[in-house]
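Input record, target 12 of the design panel.
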């Protein structure tokens, strides 16, 4: 495709504290949501997808168009070329809690470090749109015309294997799963609910009940113990030595993954290494102390999949 006919678009990789841009680069995709309403069709109203962006993403992009992966309002993290038509990709129904099933295959070239313009070049739309700014278009066109160019025709990386949904929630968690489904619908309607719940509310309504359902008695669950949101103990008295794992909670919409450094700081103050659970009440991710705090298990109460069994097994008392 010639430079004259090539359209240039921008797509967000999510907020800095809850980013999913790495997923784009790893799997050769560009994704947008909301996707839970199903695949886009020409007769689907824009209201089904909270606006026109899904329609434009599905119907206006062409193979060979360029997309910049934006980082905030003034920076570009990668440049890519569209390599496929619109695809509905159910395997991306839970990307750090986002439903991003509307996809295009992409050949990406990440920049060595984000290129930052000296002013805002992207508008208020955080998700997807066409690039009109001359300085961005000039940068992209010069980048695409410069060597090396092998990435522009490289084989596409494989898509991830889809994770099968859990047929039935674990019996101990069934009531909480139903509650999570009901409350997230309410949380997402500010006119009906008001302000989103803060961490302490989520700890009270979800985190402690989840731990109780997994067999932990109340005397082994400490809230706000030595500044830690929730600490769970194998035995009494409560001490650093008897601590089994800790939980750090963040409010919904805030990237829970960003709290890992904070949690590890609490463990360093205790002088121990223990598993860390990060949660927004609905999503739970375990970082294993013996695995150098790599993520080792994940569960989303409103989107339970078979691998969630590993998280239940890891956190269950016994």
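The sequence produced for target 12 reads:
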């Amino acid at each position: 495709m010639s430079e004259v006919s090539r359209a240039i678009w921008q797509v967000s990789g999510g907020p800095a504290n809850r980013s999913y841009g790495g997923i784009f680069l790893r799997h050769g995709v560009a994704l947008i949501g909301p996707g839970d309403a199903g695949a886009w069709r020409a007769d689907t109203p824009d209201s089904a997808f909270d606006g026109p962006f899904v329609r434009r993403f599905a119907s206006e992009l062409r193979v060979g168009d360029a997309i910049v992966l934006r980082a905030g309002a003034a920076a570009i993290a990668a440049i890519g070329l569209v390599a496929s038509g619109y695809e509905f990709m159910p395997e991306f129904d839970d990307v750090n809690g986002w439903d991003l099933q509307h996809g295009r295959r992409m050949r990406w070239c990440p920049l060595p470090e984000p290129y930052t313009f000296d002013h805002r070049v992207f508008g208020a739309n955080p998700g997807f749109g066409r690039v009109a700014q001359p300085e961005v278009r000039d940068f992209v066109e010069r980048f695409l015309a410069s060597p090396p160019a092998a990435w522009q025709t490289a084989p596409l990386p494989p898509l991830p294997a889809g994770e099968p949904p859990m047929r039935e929630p674990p019996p101990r968690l069934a009531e909480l799963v139903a509650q999570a489904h009901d409350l997230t619908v309410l949380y997402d309607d500010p006119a009906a609910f008001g302000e989103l719940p803060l961490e302490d509310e989520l700890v009270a309504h979800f985190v402690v009940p989840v731990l109780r359902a997994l067999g932990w008695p109340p005397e082994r669950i400490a809230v706000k113990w030595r500044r830690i949101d929730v600490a769970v103990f194998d035995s009494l008295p409560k001490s650093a030595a008897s601590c089994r794992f800790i939980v750090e909670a963040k409010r919904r919409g805030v990237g829970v993954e960003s709290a890992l450094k904070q949690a590890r700081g609490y463990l360093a103050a205790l002088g121990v290494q223990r598993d860390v659970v990060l949660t927004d009440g609905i999503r739970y991710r375990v970082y294993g102390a013996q695995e150098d705090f790599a993520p080792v298990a994940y569960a989303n109460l409103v989107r339970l999949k078979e691998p969630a069994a590993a998280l239940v097994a890891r956190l269950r008392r016994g």
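Residues 66 and 81 are 5 Å apart (CA to CA).
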